[in-house]
Structures are given as C-alpha cells and as structure tokens.
C-alpha cells in the first residue's frame, strides 16, 4: 500500500502523486469516484463496467415507463 501526504489548496483541490497516477493509469479526463467513510476518503477510478448492472436496471425501468399504454391517451389531446 502506497502512502503519501498531500496538501489541499484554498479551493479544496488536491494533486495526485505522479507515481500513483501512473501505476493506476489515471490520465487527464478520467473520472474518479470519491467515497467517505467516517473520517476517511477513498478515491477509485471509474470503469464502464462499474455501472453496467445499474445501467441495465435503469434501461429496463425506462422502457417500462416509456411503453406505458396509459400515457398514450395524451397523444390525441
């Protein structure tokens, strides 16, 4: 486990050490998830597959709502 001390700027920003960015292949434009647990913060690189289950579920719910026959009554108004 790598450990580094970093400073927070007056704007609340931090810089990730180059060695850690390189080892995790974090590049400009990548998205990170930040999670708080008590007095700790955890950063994790977002991967498309991280949200695949959530996306499948939300698409199913959206189709169910869009295909609602009761809403078709408004098409003729």
Could you list the spans in which at least 5 consecutive residues all have pLDDT below 50? none
Total helices: the number is 2
Strand order within the widest beta sheet: 1-2
Radius of gyration: 21 Å
Question: Roughly what percent helix?
Answer: 25-40%
User: Termini distance?
Assistant: 63 Å
DSSP summary, beta strand count: 2
Order of helices and strands: HEEH
Percent range for β-strand residues: 15-25%
Q: Helices, strands, pairings?
A:
Blueprint: H1 18-24, E1 32-37, E2 40-45, H2 52-66
Antiparallel strand pairs: 1-2
Structure description:
Helix content is 29%, strand content 16%. With 77 residues, it is α+β, with helices and mostly antiparallel strands. The protein has one domain (18-76). The radius of gyration is 21 Å and the shape is elongated.
Summarize this structure briefly.
The protein is an alpha+beta fold and 77 residues long.
Features:
2 strands; single chain; 77 residues; two-stranded antiparallel sheet; 2 helices; alpha+beta
């Amino acid at each position: 486990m790598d450990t580094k001390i970093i400073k927070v700027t007056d704007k609340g920003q931090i810089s990730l050490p180059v060695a850690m960015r390189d080892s995790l292949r974090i590049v400009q434009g990548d998205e990170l998830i930040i999670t708080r647990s008590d007095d700790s913060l955890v950063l994790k690189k977002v991967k498309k597959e991280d949200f695949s289950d959530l996306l499948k579920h939300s698409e199913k719910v959206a189709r169910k709502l869009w295909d609602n026959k009761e809403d078709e009554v408004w098409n003729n108004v």
